Amino acid sequence: MRIRVDGRIHEVSGEHLLLPLLRRLGCDVPSLCHDPRLAPQPACRLCVVEVGGVAHPVPACATAVEDGMEVRTRSPELEAHRRVTLELLARRQPADALRDPAASELARLVGAYGLADAARGGADAPPVDDAHPYIHVDMGRCIDCYRCVRICDGLQGQFVWRAWERGDRTVIRPDSGTTLLASSCVACGACVTACPSGALQDQSVREHGVPTRLTRTVCPYCGVGCELEVGTRDGRIVQALPAMDAAVNKGHLCVKGRYAFDFVAAGDRLTTPLLRTDAGWRAVAWPEAIAVTAARLRAIVDRHGADAVGVLGSARATNEENYVAQKFARVALGTNNVDCCARVCHAPSAAALADVFGTGAATSAFDDIELARTILVCGANASEGHPVIGARIRQRALAGANLIVIDPRRIELARVPGALHLPLHPGANVPVLNALACAIVEAGLVDAAFLRARVDGWEDFRAHVLRFRPEDVGPAAGVAPALLREAARRYAADTPAIAFHGLGMTEHVQGTDAVIALANLALLTGNVGRPGSGVNPLRGQNNVQGSAHMGCEPALLTGSARLAEAAPRFAAAWGAPLPTRPGLRLPGMMDAAARGELKALWAMGYDVLPTNPDVAASHRSLAALELLVVQDIFLNETARAYAHVVLPSACSFEKDGTFMNAERRIQRVRQVLPPPGEARPDWAPLCDVARALGRGDGFGFASAAAIWEEVRAVWPAGRGITYERLEGGGLQWPCPDTAHPGTARLHGESFTAGPRAALRCIEHRPSPEETSADYPLLLVTGRSLYHFNAGTMTMRTPNRVLRPGDRLDISPPDAARYGLAEGDRVRIASRYGSTTLPLHIDDAPREGELFATFNEPATWVNLLTGPHRDRRTDTPEYKRTAVRISKA
How far apart are CA 285 and CA 873, in angstroms? Predict the structure, then answer.
């Protein structure tokens, strides 16, 4: 289209509304009510412009762009109107509110029009609310633009901010009617980002000042992969803002990404290498730490062989660092004993999706959420574990999509109006999913054309699932048969349907089988390879997808290439032979250590002790090691108890590299600050020790960028992903060359494994973990919104105010049965150990079932969890433990 703006002609495309187009063209058209993340709702009238042929000025934020349009953004009449409007707003402000143009958008505009001295308000302003650890509330500065209300409703879907009273007495307050801390606020910060007047401000900015520099990087928490603009001032992080054009989070963040960055400046950061001596820790320089580590590794390998050593990559480390870690294990040490924390979460997803479709990763993009008519969420509390995606799912459901939630607890998504909740018993995933397949078959809702064209095994599968009638399965699984049939109807009939699953599916003895059963549903109904469809694991940590994909798996090399087939290709690329002996996964390493067969372990960014199941067994295994090397940003629990060498790491805000999110998107991680003291990126000590072991030829990397170039060389599906291309935004693999745009959706025309996929007949094999008279309750463990894994980072931030620590959730009937009250200290005991937690009475768990978080190392919740593992992947069964409780 052609448009004339202030006398100049522009050829334009891609914009539907006038205001964003004018700003893209460099016109400084003011506005105080517009937010690009929301539908326009003109209220402030500051953005009015004159359009040829229109009698009166029109709001640019709500006016559609038309071909041939003539627009004037500045005229004496427009400027007079804006000046009067701004003066009226300024008069309501406290006297000191407008003096600093950097304080707010209102202050900037008022200053530009020379009206800063017009402020007269404040005499009868409501009191300032400073109770919240992250958000300062001063509604004396509110201009009633309603952006906080609209952004909370329309982006987060929390509905915290509300208009109270009526007419000219209307005030904006939280839903508590009192403080923001007492409200239902989840501290996503969207209202602060939206507020144009300074009524809502970040406490960190008030304390440390407005950032002087912004650096774009990726959030260090969950696997959603939100992009941040991190603001620094005087050598510290003072603010984290959502990147407005980010493909994943689209201008939104959760409390952890937005505010939980103070761990970077914590006083107990590791800043120098440490060696354990009889007298305690001794700080040493890097050359000594490298020499001691190399000498002790060499001695162990010489005495016991390379397979007496294991290496653990990290889901918190970059792709480049994990690539070096697995190469170090295989080339510098000569062992395939390499693993990462994908083992304890989504290894079943990778194995199952690879079996069924040919690629062990998400089939879709997060943008398919907005295209789906039905969303199935299985064993994933997305609102707390993956909050930005949880918000997108919730908003899609509020807009009319079907939402089906399969979860033992009545989680937040199960409470969305219209959601269908299937409250199965922990461990009943396979029979419930088979029952859904049965109901689809019995109702004649299969996609017959898709089955004929692309799916094998239909007749055998049909006979198999007809044995799982909802009326037979439902009562034992805890789900009403009518709910199962209605869920099946919605998923199969109201398509496209997309499925997301989490650790509630995978952390069971049948984790891999359950994901295969979920993939069966997609094949049965044609809900894969099409827009708005697919099967997608919600990855727990920021780079858990990348750490495994870079080769931190015993039987897989970079790009998930099978070791047995790809070893010659990698040996040629690396100029060194690869070991062919089968490697150990982490559970196998722990078992071998307990037997005295594994002598050394190098753990990079992985706090094994509190996060492994059956902590008592982990104590025995780690205590038996001759050498434990720990790389981390803090002296974690594993290091404190058993490490011999501790190496200080740079956190993700202090280094360069890439992360891979749950939808296969590679994104750039950029250094925001220098690391403290002698801390270094995790790849650097590995390379130094490799050189000390005489393997330096393959470890001469000078930067993360140099490592990535080698990754590209050995990973055909990622060859087209360069750092230069990532400057323009993330790319989803497969991306085989630099002309390729990346692949948002897999399996569109064919499956990775071939033109057809096969339905699998999955039997139900119950967990050996059963309740009894001594242990009558079932415990499920999981995450909370405000904390992350073992709390290494979030427990060193004001998130502790929002959630002080772990707790045990119990249903009201069970609390009454055991004579327990809110806040009581409760002793929980299993067959494997015991711990004590404060009690919270909640209607989310059902009777006979409990829920506990595991984010505080001091509580040692994993003392309770047992030794049972998924039969194919060794993933521990965290989601089903028989326990008893008593008042402490």
Answer: 40
- pTM as predicted: 0.95
Listed in sequence order, the DSSP H helices in 92-216 are 105-112, 147-151, 190-194, 203-208
| CB proximity list for 203: less than 8 A, separation 6 or greater | 130, 132, 133, 134, 135, 136
Q: Is 217 left (phi over 0), alpha (psi -120 to 50) or beta?
A: beta
Residue 158 phi/psi, 5-degree rounding, is -95, -25
Instruction: From 815, 729, 870, select the one nearest 343 (Cα to Cα).
Output: 870
Half-sphere exposure of 735 (CA within 13 A, CB side): 22
Q: How far apart are CA 539 and CA 593, in angstroms?
A: 29
Q: Per residue in 426-448, pLDDT tens?
A: 999 999 999 999 999 999 999 99
DSSP 8-state assignment for residue 64:
B
Least confident of 63-67, 221-225, 370-374: 63-67
Q: What is the dihedral of CA 714, 719, 724, 729, to 10 degrees?
A: -120
User: In the chain, how long is the greatest CA-to-CA distance?
Assistant: 91
User: How far apart are alpha carbons 638 and 646 in whole angstroms?
Assistant: 10
Rounded alpha-carbon distances, angstroms, from residue 683 to 264, 297, 312, 666, 676 = 19, 17, 13, 18, 17
Rounded CA-CA distance 809/780 in Å is: 10
The neighbouring-strand residues paired with 626 are none
Alpha-carbon distance 349 to 875, whole Å?
A: 11
Runs of H (alpha helix) within 443-542: 448-454, 458-465, 470-477, 481-493, 503-506, 511-525
Tell me, what DSSP letter sits at residue 155? I
Which whole number is the average pLDDT over 448-452? 97
HEC profile for 658-711? EEECCCCEEEEECCCCCCCCCCECCHHHHHHHHHHCCCHHHCCCCCHHHHHHHH
% of the chain beyond a pLDDT of 90: 86
Establish how many alpha carbons lie within 13 A of residue 224's alpha carbon, considering only the half-sphere containing its beta carbon.
30
Quote the CA–CA distance of 790 and 751 in Å, as a whole number.
Answer: 38
Cα R_g (the chain), whole angstroms: 28
pLDDT at 676 over 70: yes
| SS3 of the chain: helix, strand, coil, percent, to 5 | 35, 20, 45
pLDDT digits (tens, 9 = 90+) for 749-776: 999 989 999 999 999 999 999 999 999 9
Q: Tell me how far apart the alpha carbons of residues 701 and 460 are, in angstroms, rounded to a whole number.
A: 53
Q: Which of 114, 115, 153, 139 has its CA nearest to residue 35? A: 153
CA-to-CA dists, residue 689 to 576, 580, 680, angstroms: 17, 23, 14
Per-residue pLDDT reduced to its tens digit, 26-72: 898 999 998 989 888 888 889 999 999 898 999 989 999 998 889 99
Summarised one tens digit per residue, pLDDT across range 510-536 is 999 999 999 999 999 999 999 999 999
**791: closest CA among 549, 575, 611, 658?**
611
